[in-house]
Amino acid sequence: MTMIRVENLKKSFGNLEVIKDMSTVVEEKEVICVIGPSGSGKSTFLRCLNRLEEITGGHVYIENVDITDPKVDINQIRQDVGMVFQQFNLFPHKSVLENVVLAPMKVKKSDRKASEQKAYELLDKVGLREKAKAYPGELSGGQKQRVAIARALAMDPKIMLFDEPTSALDPEMVGDVLDVMKQLAREGMTMVVVTHEMGFAAEMGDRVLFIDGGYIVEENVPKELFGNPQHERTKAFLSKVL
Amino acid sequence: MQRAGVRCIFLCKGDRCMDTIVNAFPYLMEGLQVTLYIFAIAIVFGFLIGLVVALFRLAPLKILNWIAKIFVDAIRGTPFIVQLFFIYFGLNSLDFISLDSTTAGIVTVAINAGAYFSEIIRAGIQSIDKGQTEAARSLGLNSTQNMRYVILPQAFRRMLPTITNQAIISLKDTSLLSVIGVADLTQEGRIQASATFDAFNVYLILGIIYFVIIYLLSMLASFVERKFVLR
């Protein structure tokens, strides 16, 4: 089943055309890794997938619903599309547990007991059950990011978007977060991951998209894209980062 | 001579200062009650006005932005006493409006504080990192839920010192209501100053009372601030 279909996506900020023309398809249970130089539009591409950025042109379908249609209930769509940010964006005034139960309780109207039970299961999964009563300010970066993943999973999303989830972390924290993401991928979550972790992309990606200058320059299985890049720009980028 | 007993407690019979205190104090306390009553009502309504105007100012609808901006500019750009005269004398000159001086006073203080509060609240909301809204919205919260559960609770903690500051200014502004005859603390002070022929001591005491009330108010505010400090 097709989870995400992007057709001729365009996005401009004022006169600045960040995404010129992008089309791709993400199937169920696929893990798509998005790589590319900074400023190439990869984060913007990801943020268009749940309409965190208003889309300038083209179409984005989530499970065959066109989210660029102004009549669509975007809040309903977003419940199925979890997102994890580079800067974690935990709610600092709420404990870890409250961060995780907020959306299920307020958006899905599930009761506190069920929400908390689910939250504890998810915190177990990311290895942070003992931090349930702690506040975000008391956690390390890696712990914050794992809480952010648990918070997104609490809505039972069908798709997870990761926007450079390890870029703001100290090197020794990166592994813990990647392990959680790998586990999630193995469980069959559909994932789109913008990342600079080429190791992760090579190991976990079903496909890798190389984005540059507002276009998807090259799109292939990791072995081919990393081992036998077709485009000059891909080669130039990979020679710098690998 | 029901105050004779009180006078004995101070053990300074005949002393002019003590005479003044003893004679004027009960009236000043009555005035203080009126001041606190007006302040309490006006500050609550002022805050609600401020919240609504701030949300208007930040709303996606241009017309609401304009209404909010014109309101704030009008209030900020005119003296408090002119606003008071307009509401008490100006509006009362219309056939279909009749406000007593206390109500007119409460309305003026509330509207005046509301304009300043709205700017404080707007700045507070805008000071919260955009990532907070993005995280909330990406979880499926709508914009009202985002405001209510994510943005405002954080913003209020940041605003508290400035809100306290404006509340203190508004409390002091209530003293101007004496001009339209509200029997507040300052009005009682003026009456007692002429009744006792001791303006020096009456106004000194008046100042001390305002000081003590405002000091208590700031202590309460810093207590609340410590209690809700951002972790």
UniProtKB/TrEMBL annotation, chain A:
SMART domains: AAA. Keywords: ATP-binding, Nucleotide-binding, Transport. Transmembrane segments: none annotated. The keyword Cytoplasm does not apply. Residues 4-238 form the ABC transporter domain. InterPro entries: AAA+_ATPase (IPR003593), ABC_ATPase_HisP-typ (IPR030679), ABC_transporter-like_ATP-bd (IPR003439), ABC_transporter-like_CS (IPR017871), MetN_ABC_transporter-like (IPR050086), P-loop_NTPase (IPR027417). Pfam families: ABC_tran. One of its GO terms (molecular function) is ATP binding. This is Polar amino acid transport system ATP-binding protein. The lineage of its organism: Bacteria, Bacillati, Bacillota, Bacilli, Bacillales.
